[in-house]
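Need tokens for this chain, all 89 residues.
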Amino acid sequence: MAVSLSKTQRYALKGLADRTGSGAFTKTGTVLAAGEIVGTYYGDQLVEAIGSATWARLMTLGMVEPAGPNRIRITDLGRAQIVKTGRAA
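Here are the structure tokens for all 89 residues:
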């Protein structure tokens, strides 16, 4: 099955993969991985955090999976999607 991901979903996968591949949900529904909020950055400045709706959709598609209470990790399918596109944007 071919999956077409939105730009935000690709940013989410790439951001999570670049920060150890796993993270924890914060109280606001964003994901904290390797001490940073996963989102789009301009230099070191966070521009937009990836929200819970995007993570829920990625979980539905099998790109991320539960990794314990309030935690997720990228799956092999998610990593393959990053390799397939070769970029986040």
